[in-house]
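Fold it.
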Amino acid sequence: MIINYSLCPLYDNGSSLCAYEDNGDLSIFFKDKMKFEALVNTKSKSAIGWENERPIRQFDLLKKLKDNDYELTVQYIKKIKHNINERNIDKILNQFDDNIIIKDMKKLLKMYILERRNRMIEIYELKDEV
């Protein structure tokens, strides 16, 4: 029997994009590396599990995907590597007036997205030219 697998995209509903951070307290993330690390890594747990591991942190899930299905998943990380960069992030964030997304939140979002992108690239051991 031949079994064909295909991946469905994992998606983020936006709740982990700093949505619960108080605009008045954002400067702490620029000064405190541990606080930023907690935001990037420890707060984000996937609703998707791996075997008996649930919940699983998103980077741990990504490591398991890499270790078990590299050829099937690396194409998505390559797209992330290519498409997510400072210019494209700025292009999106600059569409929002500072009354809608304040400057410090834009700065934090950019840091957050780039850090998560870089960690994905590291997990897949891809060379980054950015």
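The two ends are 44 Å apart (CA to CA).
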